[in-house]
Amino acid sequence: HLDPYSSYIAPEKVRQFDRYIEQEFGGIGIHVDASVGKLQIISVLPGSPAFRGGLKAGDEIVEADGKSTKGLTQAALTERLTGPSGRPVELGILRADSPTIEKVTVVREIIQIPTIVGHQRNADHTWNYFLDDVHQLGYLRITHFTKNTPDDLRQTMDILVAAGIRGVVLDLRSNPGGLLTAAIEIADMFLESGTIVSVKGRTVPERTWQAKQGLTYPDLPIAVLVNRYSASASEVLSAALQDNSRAIIVGERTFGKGSVQNVLQLESGKSLLKLTTARYYRPSGLNIHRTDDMKPEDNWGVQPTEGHAHLMSQDELQNWLMARDAIDNERPIPEVSFADPHLADATAWLKKEIATRETVK
Question: Are 42 and 156 contained in the same domain?
């Protein structure tokens, strides 16, 4: 009997699975929406081949390599546009201000989807990682944990520390997880010592990861934002920082996915088997994984620090997601009055903590 996180990945789904895990692929760097009956670009990744080729949000893709895109789903168009780096694709574009199809040739590159993003966009479309210039607060949202995430986070933190930040928000809300190694590496950036995580399984020897000295960021106050959809590697990182008294946790109780999956190649790598082999345990020794028979009062997931729990209503969650996606995809933010209770609490705590530390000095 396989658990819900073990699954067979058929040959036709392997590329899609690899793209999800790596968060990179050979493509042109656009996000397309098909919900309005046409294949319309809703965002262009800054610096990508599409960006350099002059493609813009609002452009409609009507042809790809001389073939009409009529009737194609979003997934089918993605398959046409992805391919080996260096290979060109010719697009037929319709723009709102012209009835003529414009031909644009774009050369595919390896597109790395950013997994470290900021709070707002700068005028040049890059991310702004400052939350509050006056109080010098940084903001980093980790969208997934990939092999590139630790290096990207370190590069961004180096810039923030050099600029004199005094506190940081790590936003892990709705982060589904990813590579355990990436979560461990990031936890180690903020911990001088202590346990990060343990892994135990029936057929897997128990293993514990400890923080190593050196290359650790200064003792800045940290507030970590989590919600009901923060899972797996997100829970490993937030639990490590909470149990080592390195950060406060703000928001909602996390999802409770504390199982480790190994990926086995089948048919000489043509298909894959994702198999649960072990579970994560917090530095405190407590379980993270929630099984079907567990109740809310049982130990699972990561709970917000006392006094910092804020359960969003379904409407609030929807409004937050809409506002976040609008910023991610460079669309106008929906005119919905929404105050982010998690971010507001984290910001208030950081300001208070900075003031307290300066008084003690």
Answer: no
Q: Is 68 marked active-site?
A: no
Kindly state whether residues 144 and 229 are assigned to the same domain: yes
Top-ranked range on mean pLDDT: pick from 5-9, 53-57, 62-66, 337-341 = 62-66
**Higher pLDDT among residues 303 and 57, named by residue:** 303
Residues 71 and 175 in one domain: no
pLDDT digits (tens, 9 = 90+) for 120-166: 988 888 899 999 888 999 999 999 999 999 999 999 999 999 999 99
Q: Which of 48, 174, 230, 232 is the catalytic position?
A: 232
DSSP-assigned letters across all residues of 81-127: H---TT-EEEEEEE-TT-SSPEEEEEE-EEEEPPSEE-SEE-TTSPE
Is-catalytic flag, 56? no
Q: Any catalytic annotation for residue 257?
A: yes
With beta carbons less than 8 A apart as the criterion, state whether 286 and 263 touch. no
Looking at the structure, tell me whether residues 320 and 230 fall in a common domain: yes
Q: Which domain holds residue 167?
A: 116-360
Please state, in angstroms and rounded to a whole number, the distance separating the CA atoms of residues 172 and 205.
Answer: 29
Residue 9 is assigned to a structural domain of this protein: no
Look at residues 112, 132, 162 and tell me which one is the last residue of a structural domain.
112
For every residue of 316-329, DSSP letters joined together read: HHHHHHHHHHHHHT
